[in-house]
Amino acid sequence: MTNADPHELQKFSDLAHRWWDPNAEFKPLHELNPVRLAWIDAHAHLAGKRVLDIGCGGGILSESMAGLGAQVKGIDLSTQALGVADLHSLESGVSVEYEEIAAEALAAREPGTYDAVTCMEMLEHVPDPSAIVAACATLVKPGGWVFFSTLNRNVKSYLFAVIGAEYIAQMLPKGTHDYARFIRPSELAGFVRAAGLHSHDIKGITYNPLSKHFGLSDDTSVNYLFACRRGA
Fold first, then answer.
1. In this predicted model, what pLDDT tens digit does every residue of 195-224 receive, in sequence order?
2. Is the pTM of the predicted complex or chain greater than 0.90?
3. Largest Cα–Cα distance of the chain, in whole Å?
4. 6-230 has which fold?
5. Which residues are annotated as a binding site for S-adenosyl-L-methionine?
6. Domain coordinates of the chain in residue numbers?
7. Which positions carry the signal peptide feature in this UniProt record (predicted)?
């Protein structure tokens, strides 16, 4: 069975046509993207690398990595989101290969293929995040990088990411996140170790409501980025 929640897929598919509107529901992704892109590039040096973006959605991160000179493939299980991604790639002239396929299925087909694998804002939306981590470990080349971003599970993250972002600030549509699926860094580190990856770096993502800018910090209590590598 596919490691996907039909309700979660439908939720993002219904919004797919608004993916590239910088003032619509995905505005936070547009604002966050330069921060996470710079962090990924600082580790993996994307130019000339073969990169896989798992759960690529409409292609915001995929296109930006291709713009830095990477050869990028984006995969997702939302037909609508991939349609938007393909169309935007044609309009922007930034070449990205997209495919509707599960990470686990691609891992069985293309093991050890990619210099870097990204899986951003996705683990908290699937039934079995450990299986996605394992697929990432299979897909990346020896010595390659794997990057995750997700949400910590604690009272503060519930107040900020659910109550604050969805209901008070209305930065995200209500129901975007299911708090029960948030993942503590220690849990993600366990998935990473079990998959044979080595933890390398973790950074928190902060948001300043006055400047409306995202940044990186050592505070991983809400959103966080996690970098790891496969042994050579």
1. 999 999 999 998 887 787 889 999 999 889
2. yes
3. 47
4. Rossmann fold (3.40.50)
5. 36, 55, 76, 120
6. 6-230
7. none
